[in-house]
Amino acid sequence: MNKSYQLQYVRPWNLINLCPFYQSTPLREMSAPSGVQLLIKDETNRFGLGAFKALGGIYAVAMFLIDRWQTEHQAELDPNKLFDQELQSWSNQFTFVCASAGNHGMAVAKGAQLFNAKCRVHLADNVPFSFEEKLESLGAEVVRSGTVYEDSMQAARDESDFGDDTVVLLADSSWPGYTKMPTLVMEGYTVLAEEMRRHFDQHCQSNQDWPSHVFLQAGVGGLAAAVTLHIRQHWRVQPKIIVVEPDAAPCLYESNRLGKLATVKGPVSSMGRLDCKEPSLLAFAVLQQHADDFVCISESDAADAVSFLAEREITTTPSGAAGVAAVLVAERLDISIPAGSTCLAIATEGQF
Q1: What is the pLDDT of residue 2?
Q2: What is the mean predicted confidence (pLDDT) over 191-197?
Q3: DSSP states of 225-243 as a string?
């Protein structure tokens, strides 16, 4: 699993910047109780959808449409043309299908809406009704499929196996034989990391001003892997990278411990978007090679981090606060953070 992976970041950066409502999300500074400096990349209002995942879903939909059009017409396509009536009429033949614990589905639905395609999202029974309402408001068809995320993922995979090439599975996880679309999703996430790199390049006067530690929460691992790979390949100052999971769903922790992909069992976690029992093949390959540590936090750790951020005017969920939670209990997790360190974490979603 030591293959060297590459992710495009210039292409998603340029394409996402074409979106009329694109804005870089803020980096907020605060102090942790231990005294370390804490930087929070605040994704709670990304694209008005309230989560970083909008970057991956919108970009992957756009790139699929561009690639398919170029293949059919044997000609280059200016991405700006995706907003033209001719291309929008052509795009309407496609239905993007996915499973979601909430945010990925909204990202795919938004991408489909932008380019006049269709979208169908499989949700497990444990996904809050508020997500279903938001998906439908974006024009997506919602199907309840099974009791947990893994059931809804299987339903989406089954639907895409019927042989209709206008039905497109757009998963944010990967497995043997299915890597192209999740790679595009991960490339979309690199926009977030590139925003941070540009900020630090512009505002940090010395190497010591860059983050010394980066805490990245993970479900299947797509965001953590995309940010990690971008950091390792493009940041001029290299931090320690710590992957954070719920102790109810430590699939990457166990995979790293065993040296191979592992499926885990556990109770339902309040960190719903991180409650994934099987990691992405691509994400694990990247994180196994490039992350420094894998840790697990408790339900109460995440709840305390939600309160900590709320007191500082960042409203998020246990999933969104998980990276911060690991900073707050770093000593208990045996993570060494010397005095004067700067820790970076991402508030990955708003509160729904």
Answers
A1: 45
A2: 98
A3: HHHHHHHHHH-SSPPEEEE
Amino acid at 135: L
- Please give the average per-residue pLDDT across 68-79, as a whole number: 95
**Backbone phi, then psi, for 7, in 5-degree steps?**
-125, 135
String of DSSP letters for 51-94:
BTHHHHHHHHHHHHHHHHHHHHHTS---GGGGGSHHHHHHHTT-
Q: What is the 3-state secondary structure (H, E, C) of 192-207?
A: HHHHHHHHHHHHCCCH
Total residue count of the chain as it appears in this document = 352
Query: What is the CA 320 to chain-centroid distance, rounded?
Result: 11
Q: How far is CA 162 from CA 81, 156, 168, 175, in A?
A: 30, 11, 11, 19
Query: In the predicted model, what is the mean pLDDT of the chain?
Result: 94
Domains in the chain and their CATH numbers? 10-52+190-347 (3.40.50.1100), 54-181 (3.40.50.1100)
When pLDDT is cut at 50, 70 and 90, the band that residue 351 belongs to is confident
Cβ proximity of 38 and 327 under 8 Å: yes
SS3 149: helix
Query: Span 295-321, mean pLDDT?
Result: 98
- DSSP-assigned letter for residue 147: S
| Model pTM above 0.90 | yes
CA separation for the pair 152, 101 (Å, rounded): 9
Upper half-sphere CA count for residue 208 (Cβ side, 13 Å): 4
